[in-house]
Amino acid sequence: KQEVTQIPAALSVPEGENLVLNCSFTDSAIYNLQWFRQDPGKGLTSLLLIQSSQREQTSGRLNASLDKSSGRSTLYIAASQPGDSATYLCAVRDGVKAAGNKLTFGGGTRVLVKP
Amino acid sequence: DTGVSQNPRHKITKRGQNVTFRCDPISEHNRLYWYRQTLGQGPEFLTYFQNEAQLEKSRLLSDRFSAERPKGSFSTLEIQRTEQGDSAMYLCASSSRTEINYGYTFGSGTRLTVV
């Protein structure tokens, strides 16, 4: 059974500092990995999607890397801003057909960027 | 079509009452998913439809829960005889078999409070 872990559970940084968020998963046979942002009381906004054959994806100040063999992904947010304060969730979709199409989520990292 | 729409946004109900939530996916997406998220946790998979067929159900989906997608478009999730433990955010997501590389799109969720 796939298990996804995000460490740390919470992170507080001053504005301008780079953010590094970690995600690990137990079964490396994944189809893809997706990073989401969630504001308090809101739904999930997709940030980046990395296919299992890719090593990284970039969008603006965001960069996500994937090391499938070691079961790790890292989300980097450069030059953090107070507006980046949110919970960041990673989710994996398993590559085994029997696992279906569902995503398995980590518990999230709650980020606070202080002005 | 601006995304996945969920209604209502909030629902407060008394224990023992039945509630029904609605999800309208992105129109060209044939796959629809329901997830449940409790405070401070990542979303957990409940069930998945491909067109009108319900292909997978989590064991989290007790007999009091039922989901339908009668015409392969919108979906409803009904909870009968609600319990306080049902209080959570219920999230709907959709994806397309032909656009699978684009990942999942989530709605804003329905926040259920059982008093």
For the structure shown, list the relevant keywords.
heterodimer; A: 115 residues; mainly beta; six-stranded mixed beta sheet; five-stranded antiparallel beta sheet; 0% helix; globular; B: 115 residues; seven-stranded mixed beta sheet; four-stranded antiparallel beta sheet; 11 strands
Q: Could you characterize the architecture of this molecule?
A:
The complex is a heterodimer of chains A (115) and B (115). With 115 residues, chain A is an all-beta fold. Chain A is built from no helices and eleven strands. In chain A, strands 2, 4, 5, 9, 10 and 11 form a six-stranded mixed beta sheet that branches. In chain A, strands 1-3-8-7-6 form a five-stranded antiparallel beta sheet, with no helix packed on it. Chain A is globular and about 45 Å long. The mean pLDDT of chain A is 92. With 115 residues, chain B is mainly β. Helix content of chain B is 0%, strand content 49%. Chain B has strands at 5-7, 10-13, 19-24, 31-37, 44-50, 53-57, 65-68, 75-79, 88-95, 105-106, 110-114. In chain B, the strands form two sheets. In chain B, strands 2, 4, 5, 6, 9, 10 and 11 form a seven-stranded mixed beta sheet that branches. Chain B has a four-stranded antiparallel beta sheet with strand order 1-3-8-7, with no helix packed on it. Chain B is globular, with a radius of gyration of 13 Å. The model of chain B has no long low-confidence stretch (mean pLDDT 91). At the A-B interface, strand 4, strand 5 and strand 10 of A face strand 4, strand 5, strand 9 and strand 10 of B.
Fraction of helical residues of chain B:
under 10%
Shape of chain B: globular
Unreliable residue stretches of chain B: none
Mean pLDDT level of chain B: 91
| SSE pattern of chain A | EEEEEEEEEEE
Please report the total strand number of chain A as a whole number.
Answer: 11
